[in-house]
Amino acid sequence: MVRSCSNFGGYLRRPHLNGTDAEGWFDTGDLARVDERGYVRITGRSKDVIIRGGENIPVVEIESLLYRHPAIALAAIVAYPDERLGERACAVVVPKPGQTIDLLTIVEYLKSEKVAIQYIPERLVVRESIPSTPSGKMQKFKLREMLREELLGGQ
């Protein structure tokens, strides 16, 4: 939540679209934390959170680690439904030209980076591309739909 003198003032005659409360606080949809030096660090988006068995998976941090892997060009972590845990994590990756990647390699790499086992994706989907907007922003909702279709047959 943010509030400042330069915040968006709101829509004329459509206050229900403003996204601000009575005190002028605006919900950005970002997840953040304050570090030990008092700096605010954006750690993800509220819609990007995967809740696996009641525990939040730090999507942005895992994606950042995957981008450091020498075989990965693009990476996204998205949720897929699970009857027992609610959601599980799937890594969707685009390998660099001439490279290949598999789930075991990703698991071992993330373990070597000291990632807690409960944050490691349980599934891997390798693609030639990831759907994105004309400006290049990944469309994770399309990845979630794709996974749901593959796993549940569109149910």
Please trace the helix and strand order, writing H or E for each element.
EEEEHEEHEH
- Low-pLDDT segments, ≥5 res: none
The CATH architecture of the domain at 48-152 can be named as: 2-Layer Sandwich
Using the CA coordinates, give the radius of gyration. Answer: 18 Å
As laid out across the biggest beta sheet, the strand order is 5-6-7
Report the structural category: alpha+beta
Largest sheet: 3 strands, mixed
For the residues shown, what is the average pLDDT?
86
Task: Predict the CATH topology of the domain at 48-152.
Answer: GMP Synthetase, Chain A, domain 3
User: CATH class of the domain at 48-152, please?
Assistant: Alpha Beta
Shape: globular
Assigned CATH superfamily of the domain at 48-152: ANL, C-terminal domain
Count of DSSP strands: 7
- Put simply, the count of helices is 3
The percentage helix is 10-25%
Distance between the amino and carboxyl termini:
35 Å
The proportion of strand residues reads 25-35%
Any descriptors?
155 residues; alpha+beta; GMP Synthetase, Chain A, domain 3; 3-stranded mixed beta sheet; two-stranded antiparallel sheet; 27% strand
Q: What do you see in this structure?
A:
The longest helix has 13 residues, at 140-152. The chain has a domain at 48-152: ANL, C-terminal domain (GMP Synthetase, Chain A, domain 3, 2-Layer Sandwich), CATH 3.30.300. It is built from three helices and seven strands. It has helices at 59-67, 103-112, 140-152, and strands at residues 30-34, 40-45, 50-52, 55-57, 72-82, 86-95, 123-126. Helices cover 21% and strands 27% of the residues. The two termini are 35 Å apart. With 155 residues, it is an alpha+beta fold. The chain is globular and about 50 Å long.
